[in-house]
Amino acid sequence: MEPILVYGFPLGSSMGLVAALEWLGMPYRLCRVDMLDDMRQPSYARLNPRHETPVFVTEGGTVLTETMAIAAWLEARDTERRISFAPLSPEADRMHRLMGFTNSSFTGSFSALWAALEMTDPDPHLRDALRRWGRTAVIKRHDQLEELIEDTPFLLGDRPTLADAMLAGVSRWLEFHAVAELARWPKLATWRSRIEVEPAIVFATEIENGQASTGSGAFQGHTPLAEAVGRFGASPR
Q1: Which residues contact 138 (CB under 8 A, 6 or more apart)?
Q2: Coil, helix or strand for 51?
Q3: pLDDT under 70 in the chain at which residues?
Q4: pTM
């Protein structure tokens, strides 16, 4: 069978992994999950007990969670080096550094803002404090990211890699949370203008938005969430 990526909407970080699968060109399927509804249901815990996306089901039916683990699976199978670099090379080291920063410090800087947004019984003082803390953290990490971006078309050269894919999914949160103007970070703004018109990113965004879209030909269709849970989820406890 084809591997299945369980991706979340709206504005899921997993959008970038859809683009990575497109760049890789290996046949795959998708499973679309509403993060404000489906992901919170008790049955979803059979795929991921932490109620998070992404989730990846390998061709052998093994379930992987966590973005870095899924990215490592893709990298290991990228024999043509379409989205990665030769193991042990300096370029691979740089890619892993950027991926690690994106998946930890950069993504984590938005945690307070998401917490403020998702409060079910908001305390106005706590919510305002979370928003102030969150904006400060996000700006700090954007400043640090700006220093890491080099003068190349994509993050690591003339073609997009897993590092570009991972950043593409979360970099758009800046506008969603209205933290600051993107123009404050010129190198990031230039990268965003280039990556967002990449056909794989356009395809992944349209798919995330529920639109019919034509990709590279690797996408083999959607698997319903109930089917994914029933076939590959852990037995209920």
Answers
A1: 109, 110, 113, 174, 177, 179, 180
A2: coil
A3: 235-237
A4: 0.95
